[in-house]
């Protein structure tokens, strides 16, 4: 988990996480402010402080003989006794006496009283002060004065070398010493809510490995990104055809330029298209790339070798249901049809499919010719139980025949991250084209298929970055590209209009 977070750590991603979750973060801050502020309002309290001043003597005679001079040494010794006196004042027996004398023994125990007492020495003097903190100002005064009454006798009885005298008795506190600030607590609650929610969203965001920007591919993997395919609103709009959007046409022109490298030593190019998982658009990209290649005069064929798709997904026609009067008649008809399957397909549809060729029912490849001129060889009646056929001589023979006739061969394979059948082209293809989809493909899945291909010794041609948002900073074909030439055309029109007006005048 932490390795994944470190891999995803990027300043841009951190800023994006915070920016995209800004509303939730502020809402968390508001909730934190309300909760903590509410607790402060309900549980908050006002504290009052009462104090007494005591004078410490190092010599007991000072208390009764006013002619004795007090020296600095006496003061220093007296200050040394202060800590001892405080230990006596906070002893269990003394606190119990204070509670009994003040009549508060039924209200609190000695532990609670101990938590309300504090003391400090006055600098360079033998004076120290005892403080009592309580929510009730009268109770604070009562406890402080009770301590002042009992302290001298108790200290003298315990410490024989010194004494203590009360200087000032406690007065009723007129103003609170401290009170709970609901506003301050609400502010701390807001800060805490914002901080915790931000950390949580960053934690979740860094553990989300869905590809969101191009750098998440280029920073982690060596193969280049050959083209960016823009996100289209519908599946129909994503099909390359005459009159489709300029952005889509330009994207496939870029991909075509990367694929058709026009090497003189290679008559035909063979590429396998796969992805990490299903739903990333490899089939659509294969067909659109083929259409773009046909547009520049390249004879192109697309082979559907994805045995993992259902018939309706792969374009394979579903078998018609046969109604019969008895099961026996149905069985006989099935046997007759099985013997003539190849001939029936060829005569009825005018083409063969991959299944017929792999089962050696024919040695002639007759693909479908689509309206855009792309040759398409459908899968036919194959299932995932026939995977071994893709690794056999029959499939190699199909590729060999296609190389003799076509300029470009595109093989649509199942997702390599799920099925290993996609490795059937490892030794045959000029390169694998890996399709990744923005906000769908995960980086660890891409890493998996690259490791599989490298282990099999397959060449990787590059990535196709599918579904890039048109508002993404990575999308190059933006407003400037769409409006290219618009300004110049307007200038020409304005000049022509000006000439006409001048001639009229």
From TrEMBL:
One of its GO terms (cellular component) is plasma membrane. The keyword Aminoacyl-tRNA synthetase does not apply. Residues 309-351 are annotated as: Disordered. The chain crosses the membrane at residues 184-206. GO terms for molecular function: protein tyrosine kinase activity. Keywords: Membrane, Transmembrane, Transmembrane helix. Gene3D superfamilies: P-loop containing nucleotide triphosphate hydrolases. PANTHER family: CAPSULAR EXOPOLYSACCHARIDE FAMILY, TYROSINE-PROTEIN KINASE. This is ATPase involved in chromosome partitioning. It comes from Eubacterium cellulosolvens (strain ATCC 43171 / JCM 9499 / 6).
